[in-house]
Specification:
- It is a single chain.
- Helices cover 43% and strands 26% of the residues.
- The protein is built from 3 helices and 4 strands.
- Strands 1-2-3-4 form a 4-stranded mixed beta sheet, covered by helices on one side.
- A hairpin with a 2-residue loop joins β3 and β4.
- α1 runs parallel beside α3.
- It starts with 14 loop residues before the first strand and ends with a helix.
Length: 134
């Protein structure tokens, strides 16, 4: 009898995420939303990344009108810090936009590192060619 395997995806997160609610309690749904917003980073970043996420109201003194929410994400990789902060009328939209900003920041820094490494390899290649033909 053949056993059918279920497609189960296990995410072994190497990110240590610290949450903080500003001027409001942070629910489990918001924590889950932050984790899903930061999920693309697991493919890009190396192991052992520290993330500090703050979600909350900008102030408690609004009597009329809608509340304004802020999502701030600080990411500490080995030797480099990334920061994104977004203010919006909806907390979940602010989390999504901050997550997109932090992913974009990490991708830009990654591209810079690859370009520098490529340039370094080209310089070494030129030097070895010039030393070989002299």
């Amino acid at each position: 009898m053949d056993k059918k395997r279920a497609n189960i995806v296990f995410l072994y997160t190497s990110m240590n995420i610290a949450f903080k609610g500003l001027r409001m309690p942070l629910t489990d749904e918001m924590k889950k939303h932050v984790r899903t917003a930061l999920a693309p980073l697991e493919k890009i970043l190396p192991d052992h990344v520290h993330v500090y996420a703050e979600v909350g109201k900008t102030s408690n003194h609004h009597r009329s009108g809608d509340d304004i929410y802020q999502a701030s994400i600080t990411l500490d990789t080995k030797g480099h810090m990334h920061f994104a902060s977004v203010t919006d009328g909806d907390a979940y939209k602010a989390i999504d936009r901050a997550g997109l900003d932090i992913v974009e920041s990490v991708k830009q820094n990654r591209g810079r590192k690859q370009t520098l490494a490529r340039r370094g390899r080209m310089i070494i290649k030129r030097l070895t060619k010039s030393a070989f033909y002299e």
